[in-house]
Structure prediction request, 87 residues.
Amino acid sequence: MIENSEVDSGEKAMILLQSLICYLREKNVLSRADIEELRDRVEARIATGEKNLPCTAAMAAAAATEMRELDDYCGKTYGGKHRRRVN
Prediction:
């Protein structure tokens, strides 16, 4: 078993959040469109340079990358309809 000191709290939080999002998608509580919307919100907060982010810009960009990868993973694993984009 991995000791608590070997894994920082940020990694633990990331594992928990990824697992929770996948679980909610698997149980059809979250749709693929919901996950896409969440991804877009994360990216929008970074694009606007929001000053009240509780982390550095580099960490926020890493979160956006993680969210894109999680969106791709959930789409491939659980399928579902994409959100309709209106342009």
